[in-house]
Design goal:
The protein is α+β, with helices and mostly antiparallel strands. The chain is built from 4 helices and 4 strands. α1 runs parallel beside α3. The N terminus is likely disordered. The structure holds glutathione (GSH).
Length: 116
């Protein structure tokens, strides 16, 4: 997948969401500029349930990442996408010359205890 710098990713997330932490941490460690789109999970019955957000993520969960016309959901899949789309940014974990754990180790280590 070619590196994309055309547009900044937009991260739909909630500040207390551990899955959202995972993606924010990956974005920040990789030094990727991104925009935040807050989705309040409690206010007004939960903004994740509002039709406008359900058009972005029909599952009604955060995080969701929109980049270059693609919508991605599931925090681990988003972290893996970031590795592919921004290969020249810092990896979110040390690389190991093809042996052992690769760049997926850190995202999996973060809130996996809460959101496997
Ligand atoms: N496996 C998903 C879990 C996503 C998830 O459960 N998100 C929670 C916040 S951490 C959520 O959006 N909850 C809203 C709800 O259940 O209505 C991921 O890693 O992205």
């Amino acid at each position: 997948m070619p590196e994309s710098k055309a547009t900044a990713p937009v991260l739909y997330s909630y500040w207390r969401s551990s899955s959202s932490y995972r993606v924010r941490i990956a974005l920040n460690l990789k030094g990727i500029d991104y925009e935040q789109a807050p989705v309040h999970l409690v206010r007004n019955g939960g903004e994740q349930n509002h039709p406008a957000y359900r058009e972005i993520n029909p599952l009604g969960l955060v995080p969701a990442l929109v980049h270059d016309g693609r919508v991605m959901v599931q925090s681990l899949a988003i972290c893996e996408y970031l590795e592919e789309a921004f290969p020249h940014a810092a990896a979110v974990a040390p690389r190991t010359n093809g042996a052992g754990q690769g760049s997926g180790a850190l995202p999996r280590a973060l809130p996996v205890r809460f959101n496997p």
